[in-house]
Amino acid sequence: IGEDVKPFTPEKAKEIVMSLQQPAVFCNMVGDWPALHWNAKYLSAVLDGKAIQFRLGLKAVDLVPQFETRCSYVKATLEEFLAWSCGQPSCLSGPFSCYEYSKYWAYADYKYIARIFEDKPDIFQDIRWSDFGFPGRSGKESTLWIGSEGANTPCHLDSYGCNLVLQVQGRKRWHLFPPGDTSFLYPTRIPYEESSVFSKVNVANPDLKRFPEFRNTTACVVTLHPGQVLLVPRHWWHYVESIDPVTVSINSWIELDADHEARVEEAITRMLVCAIKSAENPSDGDLWLNPTEVEATSHEINLQYLNKAVSAYFRCQKASVSEQACSSS
């Protein structure tokens, strides 16, 4: 195949993304994307001194996952982050001064590109998910992740959609587990976050005394290199860690019809978590909610969530029933 010919047409790529039940790595699909130049240094220049929030965790490996509720948080510029990750002595002052690089990792994760670059809308076009059969999908519908070596996301599954992840700088190691391994991963909803089900197991250092069933899992381990795109199918568990000094990746969640049913489940879960939490000692509240969840929502709002989710689910059901009727007639 010539250098500029992609292995899949957008139609074929979309067919694979929507139907494949196994993780897959796409190669040679994004060679002409301007986003491939989005290394941390370039983004630092574009952001021009804008501070973003970093999550900090310990590099020392524990038997329990480092949930986001147990991390520290600092606001810093990418310039400050890069100086710290290079071990520059200038970091004796500044936001990272209390966190020794040899002991900590930092992660600016889950940053909506639309929000970070709201004053630079032209940059959205650097990301072209249309090559995967999703016309009109750009950086606006994508999320940015910038981490230092050791930065990681605890093992979890996403309730909605499937996931396309572009690696831009450095390498990341993905430990992926199929939906059938769910019971072996000891799922929990605490810390609660809409759309994420966490595992109680620290996949990098499992406590087999507490979680003996974890032995029955079959991990698929993928090291993602710059220029590659990983497909994470619906409900596949994943633990992700940065294995280079600086990593940058961009992802987009692709909506699926099955999400309507998942939204009903998530609305019920939200209602239960908030109800139980309100009966708890208020001082423990912070350990319940993942930091991405701003606050416990009222019963009123939770009912609205549930109503909307149920209505959307039934609308989708009706639509597919009438479609079947049309095709059979």
From TrEMBL:
<protein>
    <submittedName>
        <fullName>HSPB1-associated protein 1</fullName>
    </submittedName>
</protein>
<dbReference type="Pfam" id="PF13621">
    <property type="entry name" value="Cupin_8"/>
</dbReference>
<dbReference type="GO" id="GO:0005737">
    <property type="term" value="C:cytoplasm"/>
</dbReference>
<feature type="domain" description="JmjC">
    <location>
        <begin position="105"/>
        <end position="269"/>
    </location>
</feature>
<comment type="function">
    <text>May play a role in cellular stress response.</text>
</comment>
<dbReference type="InterPro" id="IPR013296">
    <property type="entry name" value="HSPB1-associated_protein_1"/>
</dbReference>
<dbReference type="InterPro" id="IPR041667">
    <property type="entry name" value="Cupin_8"/>
</dbReference>
<dbReference type="InterPro" id="IPR003347">
    <property type="entry name" value="JmjC_dom"/>
</dbReference>
<keyword id="KW-0963">Cytoplasm</keyword>
